[in-house]
TrEMBL record:
This is NAD-dependent epimerase/dehydratase domain-containing protein. InterPro entries: Epimerase_deHydtase, Lipid_A_modif_metabolic_enz, NAD(P)-bd_dom_sf. Residues 3-228 form the NAD-dependent epimerase/dehydratase domain. It comes from Candidatus Wallbacteria bacterium GWC2_49_35. It comes from the Bacteria. It holds the Pfam family Epimerase.
């Protein structure tokens, strides 16, 4: 089995590459990226003769296409694309692999839905192509449409995954770390929710890797779209409580308006949306079977992520959050909630 991975140096790749290399003994992995972001492991050294790295930059479409065409000559069975954000970045890959592979797995995003109109959102939820949605979400929609057209044109079979928020070790976005460090130091969490406690779904990176592995060359997944989400959704405050449990700390949560948050945070963006993010994973569960659906209980996954940060000495960080503490003491101390 020969698989090409576009991307692979960051969060998803750190879980997926070892999983595939260790689970499938006859696999040959070709990892294609710019070579700018250092890989967590030296894949070629760890799995010699089975994992190969190639340098190719999507910002140079002609050179990128040439590089992929050379790799396609190796009789690649499937492509896993984790680094495509625009239709223009996608076109060279479609051209290079058309009629040469069995499956193209595309990592899209649940952001294609925009603000959810119903909960939990299934794959049939309307896509938001309007200006109210993020540029990221709108561009992924364009990519999905292009790939579905390729499937209709029989260039290759397509499987589209729409992950919700991803967390776990090697998370370069530091979304979860935002909360871990503050809760560790007993710094109040300003939540720009306007008093609401939205439903929340996040997927542990190891579970996402197992989902991708289960879809790989799985004919039942050909020309299908799946939410890549956890088995359960929970309230956002409950998710923060899990971090507090891991740290044996109480969580000070302060619901504020968006304008108040900007004052309290000094212009720092909140790591997650303030809207509901509850997604239905039933379609993928039906494919895998309930017992085989990859899901690490939230508390276990959060515990492992927190331990990873502590082992790396990320926590505590040098930041003492003096401005946030001062703003809390002067404005919100009586209104805070301990979780």
């Amino acid at each position: 089995m020969k698989i090409a991975i576009l991307g692979g140096s960051r969060l998803i790749g750190t879980a997926l590459v070892p999983l595939l290399a260790e689970k499938i003994k006859d696999i040959e992995l070709h990892i294609i990226n710019r070579g700018v972001t250092p890989a967590v492991w030296d894949y070629e050294k760890k799995w010699p003769g089975r994992v190969f790295r190639h340098i190719a930059d999507r910002s140079s479409p002609l050179n990128f296409c040439d590089a992929l065409e050379k790799i396609a000559l190796k009789k690649i069975d499937a492509v896993i694309d984790m680094s495509c954000y625009t239709k223009e970045e996608l076109t060279p890959a479609i051209r290079a692999f058309s009629k040469k592979i069995s499956q193209y797995i595309f990592i899209s995003t649940c952001s294609v839905y925009g603000v959810l109109k119903y909960l939990p959102a299934s794959e049939e939820h309307p896509l938001d192509t309007g200006e109210s949605n993020s540029m990221y979400g709108r561009e992924k929609i364009k990519c999905e449409k292009e790939l579905l057209y390729s499937a209709k044109n029989k260039d290759f079979n397509v499987t589209i995954l729409r992950p919700t928020y991803i967390y776990g070790p090697w998370d370069y976005t530091e979304r979860l770390f935002y909360f871990i460090d503050r809760i560790y130091k007993q710094v109040p969490i300003f939540f720009p929710s306007g008093g609401q406690d939205p439903m929340f779904n996040a997927i542990y990176v190891k579970d996402l890797a197992r989902q991708i592995a289960g879809l790989l060359l799985n004919e039942g997944a050909y020309n299908q779209i799946y939410n890549a989400a956890s088995n359960d959704s929970l309230y956002f405050s409950e998710f923060l409580k899990l971090i507090g449990n891991s740290l044996s700390q109480e969580v000070k949560l302060v619901h504020v308006s968006y304008d108040e948050y900007k004052k309290a945070a000094g212009g720092l963006s909140f790591p997650y949306t303030r809207y509901h993010t509850a997604f239905d994973a039933g379609k993928m569960k039906a494919l895998f079977g309930e017992e085989n659906f990859p899901f690490t209980p939230y508390q276990q996954a959060v515990d492992e992520t927190v331990s990873w940060h502590i082992d790396r000495a990320d926590v505590p960080s040098p930041n003492n959050y003096a401005d946030e503490k001062k703003y809390f003491a002067g404005n919100f101390a009586p209104k805070s909630r301990l979780l």
